[in-house]
Amino acid sequence: GLAGKVALVTGSTSGIGLSIVNHLADLRCNVILNGFGETKHIEDVQTNLKRQNIKVNFFEDDLSTVQGNLTLCDNIYRIYPTGVDILVNNAGFQHVSPVETFPTAKWEQMIGLMLTSPFLLVQKFLPEMKRKEWGRIINISSVHGLVASPYKAAYVSAKHGVHGLTKVVALETAETGITCNAICPGFVDTPIYQKQVESRSQTDGCSYDEASRRILELNHPTLQPIGTHQVAKFVEFLCYEAASQITGSCLTMDGGWTAR
Ligand code: NAD
Predict the structure, then answer these.
(1) pLDDT for 70-89, tens place per residue?
(2) Residue whose CA is at the smallest distance from ligand 1 atom 7
C-alpha cells in the first residue's frame, strides 16, 4: 500500500489537485499541499485531512518563479530530510489570447508554472528517490499536451513541453524503481468547468445539462466531463506495483477526444 509515503501535490488547494491530495490522504500518505486560496478554505482542508492521522503540511510558494520552487523544496527538506516519494506536478492555469497579442509576461508565468516548476521539482527530489529506489512522478498534463486549440499558445506549449520532460526523466530513471508519466485529461468537472457551463446555459437559454452537452459535443464523444476523483484514482493506480512498467507514457483520460 501507499501508507506512510510522502506525497507533494502542487496546486492542491482546488480542483483536480485537491481531489488527488484528499485521495492520497485516504490511502494514508503524508501529504504536502501547495497553492493559493482563502485562508479559511485552506485551514478547513487541512483540518479535514488531519482527521486521517497523517502528517499534513501546506506551503503557498508561487511555483511560477524559480525562487518559489527552490523555497518550497527547502521547506520540504526541513520537514522530510529524504524528500518526497510521490511528486504530482499539477499546478496550472489557462489564459486565452491570439498569439499576436499574447502577453509575454503571461507566457513566462505559464511556462514557469507548468514546465519549469516540474523540471525544478524533479531535479530537487530525484536524488533522494534514487537513494530510496522508489518514486512516482506524475505530471498532470492535458489533451492539450497532444493536440492544440487556438488562442492557447502558452498552455499548449507548456503541456507539450512537459511531455518531453516526462519521457526524458523516464529514460534517466528507467532502472531505478522510479516511474515518470503524464496524465492527459479532457474536460474535468471542476469549478472552472461548472462556471463555463452556467454561463453557456444563460447565453443559450437552456438547462445546465444541455449546456454541458453543447460544450462537450465538440470534443468529448462520451458527452460527459471527467470527475476529479477519476483523475485521483488514475494517480493511485500509477503508484502501485501493477503500474511499475508504465513509464514515459502520456496517458489520456479524455472521453475519446483524441481518438477522432
Ligand atoms: P484549479 O484552478 O481548480 O486549480 C489550480 C491549482 O493551482 C490551485 O490550487 C491554484 O492555487 C494553484 N496555482 C495556480 N497558480 C499557482 C502558482 N503560481 N503557484 C502555485 N500554485 C498555483 O485548476 P484545475 O482545473 O484543477 O487544474 C489542475 C491541473 O489540471 C492544471 O495543470 C490543468 O492544466 C490541468 N487540467 C485541467 C483540466 C480541466 O478541465 N479542469 C483539463 C485538463 C488538464
Answers:
(1) 999 999 999 999 999 999 99
(2) 11
* 150 in the same domain as 203: no
C-alpha cell at 186: 479532457
Name the domain count of the chain. Answer: 2
Residues 196, 252, single domain; the answer is no
* Model confidence pLDDT, tens digit, residues 189-214: 998 899 999 999 999 999 999 999 99
Cell (9 digits) for 18 = 485537491
Q: Residue 35: CB partners within 8 Å, gap ≥ 6?
A: 10, 11, 12, 13, 14, 17, 60, 91
* Whether residue 18 sits in one domain with residue 129: yes
On whether both 211 and 152 belong to a single domain, the answer is no
Q: Is residue 75 part of a domain?
A: yes
The residues carrying an active-site annotation are 155
| Cα 92 to middle of ligand 1, angstroms | 4
Q: List pLDDT tens digits, range 164-173.
A: 999 999 999 9
Q: Using CA atoms, how far apart are residues 72 and 61, in angstroms rounded to an integer?
A: 6
Q: Tell me, what's the ipTM?
A: 0.99
Domain housing 165 = 6-186+227-259
* pLDDT over 90 (residue 55): yes
192 alpha carbon – ligand 1 mean position (Å): 10
Q: Do 24 and 2 contact (CB within 8 A), yes or no?
A: yes
DSSP assignment letter at 226: B
Considering the domain architecture, whether residues 99 and 157 belong to the same structural domain is answered as: yes
